[in-house]
Amino acid sequence: MTVLILCAAAAWFMTGLHWFVQVVHYPLFAEVGPDRFLTYHRLHSERTTPVVFPAMAVELVTSGWLLFSSPAGTSSSLIVAGFVLAVLTWLATGLLAVPRHTELGAGFDVRVHRRLESASWVRTAAWSAHAVVVGVLLSQAGG
Fold first, then answer.
1. How many CB atoms are located within 10 Å of the residue 125 CB?
2. Do 8 and 140 touch, CB atoms closer than 8 A?
3. Where is 43: in which H helix or E strand?
4. 87 and 110 in contact (C-beta within 8 Å)?
């Protein structure tokens, strides 16, 4: 049960954080201005990683752990779905978000910014779905 609670905490943290990033933070990239954007983006990247990496790692590891040791009464299909959603957030981060951030690291580009915002909806949806999944699993486990 402790692993499920850790998984839920990480998934819920990332869901809330990423909704903020998606709706507030990423749209504000366009408002920084070309003269300050490179510094702003560099600082964004440096400060974001230590906040999100531990939570993403906990979410992924605990989701995987649950595949082999799930609490009694929990749905195995939801356990698998949760793991798939956690993996999806890593894939979307590595394949969609990081390359766009790398491009923006060279300077603000409206098209790249739009692609980042669009691609990031994959992560927003995956984290939101995982938040629901772990909520149902906690309910099933009696937590």
1. 16
2. no
3. helix 34-68
4. no
Confidence of residue 142 (pLDDT cuts 50, 70, 90): confident
Q: What is the pLDDT of residues 114-130, one digit of tens each?
A: 999 999 999 999 999 99
Tokens of 5: 């609670």
Domain ranges of the chain: 2-141
24-56 burial, b at 16+ Cβ within 10 Å, e below that, comes to eebeebeeeeeeebeebbeebeeeeeeebeebb
Flag whether the pTM goes above 0.90: yes
143 confidence band (pLDDT: 50, 70, 90): low
